Amino acid sequence: MVLSxxxxxxxxxxxxAAQLAWWCDELQDWTREQVVxxxxxxxxxxxRIRPTPGDIVAICKEARGKxxxxxxxAPPHDPPKERVSRDRAAEILAEAGFSPxxxxxxx
Length: 107
Hints:
The protein is mainly alpha-helical and about 110 residues long. It is about 55% helix and about 0% strand. It contains 4 helices and no strands.
């Protein structure tokens, strides 16, 4: 059994059954292979910490998200836009009837 390493040998059978039910409820949407892969990943990265089903689900979701993102086409790259010169910006503002006050200039 994949989860046997995470149970204490002295745990009562009803506690083990409740824990297994919890794990099964949380992981029912994932294949056995996905869960085993996530448990192995957890064990490689955190070998001394006992995971919760939520930890394993998070690993599965992260992997699924990365796989999905990798399958998406790259977003279109917009060509860089030409910047408006200061003089042209001032002309546009004047045409719109806007005349900002300038620091140190005439009011």
